[in-house]
Design a protein that fits this description.
This protein is of the alpha+beta class and 202 residues long. Helices cover 31% and strands 21% of the residues. The protein is built from six helices and eleven strands. The chain is elongated, with a radius of gyration of 21 Å. The relative contact order is 0.20. It binds flavin-adenine dinucleotide. InterPro entries: Amino_oxidase, FAD/NAD-bd_sf, Flavin_MAO. This is Monoamine oxidase. Belongs to the flavin monoamine oxidase family.
């Protein structure tokens, strides 16, 4: 990577050339990409970041049956699920947090949905076991995300350091991991900022 002369080799073997490169990859997948022509300090900073390894589970019912028991669908749980919340009318969403992700991975595929629904049934009643449909998404082991949102463990902020979210033209970074706390706001803000910076440098 040199000013005005960047090359990206894609998985199919094709090489693309450009005057600048903007990486919008989450920090996990980025670690698997070989980057040259960028300072060691910048790569060390980027590679020092981590993501929260989590999963999401969603179950859809014909009605929000939990309300019949005076419950609003919001919970902090002690099972495999870490929390539940109503995503829409009759739809419950739940997150499996990093410290419980291993238990989820250990569930045989054929039991996984049944056991997660049992967690919800313990909170809201037997109707939870028979949704119209449900879906589990293993964000933490999805190769293209390797996580849920940016996670900051003690010591990470100073170790990642002041290069976080900054650029080394012609190499630019964006994506929610390059913002203070992940999330959509981070993805949008850093995307706009990286585009502005790349255009400023021409
Ligand atoms: C279950 C869940 C719930 C969430 N809820 C909220 C919420 O309520 N509010 C909120 O603000 N945020 C929420 N978030 C977080 C938010 O979705 C993310 O922070 C945001 O989508 C990240 O955007 P991004 O552009 O940085 O990365 P991504 O959207 O992850 O985009 C990165 C892209 O890079 C691609 N990619 C990866 N590796 C490669 C490679 N080697 N080559 C080419 N492409 C590659 C991926 O396929 C992906 O398309 C949630 C996330 C999850 C998982």
């Amino acid at each position: 990577m040199r000013p005005g002369r960047c090359a990206v080799r894609v998985a199919g073997g094709e090489t693309l050339t450009a005057s600048a490169v903007v990486s919008a990859l989450p920090v996990g997948p980025l670690r698997a990409v070989t980057v040259s022509g960028v300072s060691d300090e910048r790569l060390a900073s980027l590679h020092r970041q981590r993501q929260a390894v989590a999963a999401k589970f969603t179950a859809a019912y014909d009605k929000p049956f939990w309300r019949d028991s005076g419950l609003n669908g919001l919970s902090e749980c002690e099972g495999v699920l870490g929390s539940t919340w109503p995503q829409n009318e009759g739809v419950l969403s739940a997150l499996v947090p990093p410290e419980r992700y291993g238990v989820l991975l250990g569930m045989p595929d054929a039991l996984r949905t049944r056991e997660l629904l049992a967690d919800i049934a313990r909170l809201y009643g037997e109707e939870a076991r028979t949704p119209l449909g449900s879906h589990v998404r293993m964000w933490g082991t999805d190769p293209w995300t390797q996580g849920y949102v940016t996670q900051w463990a003690p010591g990470d902020v100073t170790a990642v350091g002041p290069r976080h979210g900054t650029h080394e033209p012609p190499f630019y970074v964006c994506g929610s991991d390059q913002w203070v706390a992940g999330y959509m706001e981070g993805a949008v803000r850093t995307g706009r900022a990286a585009a502005k910076e790349a255009l400023r440098h021409g």
